[in-house]
Write a structure and sequence with these properties.
alpha+beta, N-terminal domain of TfIIb, GMP Synthetase, Chain A, domain 3, three-stranded antiparallel β-sheet, 3 helices, 6 strands
């Protein structure tokens, strides 16, 4: 597959990965990273899972709004929350992720909400990147 790239984000991690610093080329992101307390760290900075959750929630909401427009649905006041979990992947040394997207579409008729969520999931770049690699659950919330 060849992509027609419209934009490229660049970020730099230094100083120790989960216990270091991350900065974007445009300096909009410039923060310390720390291992979460739940994984034995201090939790005093952000972590890759928080950054991934923020990116996925934002990207999925954009896909949801675009899909609603194409489907003639009212996406006013829609929102998406992403929960990103990390844990050991079986008996090996690796780790894996699991994502739950909580999708709130108060102005979409209940019978159309799942179709809208599925449409957004089919076009969202994060969903396409994770498909087949990360367990993603779409949860419709009231």
């Amino acid at each position: 597959m060849t992509l027609d790239i419209a934009y490229t984000a660049i970020a730099h991690a230094t100083g120790g990965g989960r216990n270091g610093h991350v900065r974007s080329d445009n300096d909009r992101i410039d923060m310390d990273t720390r291992t979460p307390k739940e994984m034995g760290g201090s939790g005093d900075g952000t972590n890759p899972e928080e950054l991934f959750a923020a990116g996925y929630a934002t990207c999925f909401l954009s896909a949801l709004l675009g899909s609603a427009k194409r489907m003639g649905l009212d996406s006013t006041d829609a929102s998406v929350s992403a929960s990103v979990g990390i844990g050991k992947d079986g008996d090996g040394p690796g780790f894996g992720l699991a994502v739950e997207l909580d999708i709130f579409t108060p102005n979409v008729a209940p019978e159309s909400r799942q179709a809208l969520a599925d449409a957004a999931h089919s076009v969202c770049p994060y969903s396409n990147a994770t498909r087949g690699n990360v367990e993603v659950t779409l949860a419709l919330v009231d």
